[in-house]
Amino acid sequence: MDNGVILFTTFIVTCSVAIGIHYLLYLRKKIHAETIISVWNKFEKAISNRHIKDVNKLGTELIWNEHLTLDKLNHISNSINNLGKDYSELEDLKMLIYNKRLDWNKRHR
Question: Has residue 17 been placed in a domain?
Fold first, then answer.
């Protein structure tokens, strides 16, 4: 096979993979933007009703959402600290919050 054909094929495959990855990242960001408000409302309801499994699940989903703000993170942290004294199931969520804060502090210095 000619070297030109090999180089061209390699270039096309590499560009196709890069475009595919960027498209998947775009879709993920779009889904996060569409769902953060509904997940936030469900989280607030779970906190007020003290449904610990839902608090844990929804809080984790919020932590991993790209559109989470510092104000919302602080609110989640305060809510979990108020509930966390009574429920040991929230320890993993506390660690996620702690790690998210460390990541933000590292990036914004």
Answer: no
C-alpha dihedral sign at 27, 59, 90, 96: positive
Q: Is residue 58 part of a domain?
A: yes
Torsion of CA 87, 88, 90, 96, to 10 degrees: 150
Give a yes or no: residue 70 inside a domain: yes
Domain that holds residue 67: 32-107
Structurally, how many domains does the chain consist of? 1
Report pTM: 0.80
Query: What digits encode the pLDDT tens for the residues 27-86?
Result: 999 999 999 999 999 999 999 998 889 999 999 999 999 999 989 999 999 988 888 677
Q: What's the confidence (pLDDT) of residue 84? A: 66
Centre a 10 Å sphere on the Cβ of residue 75 and count the other Cβ atoms it contains.
16
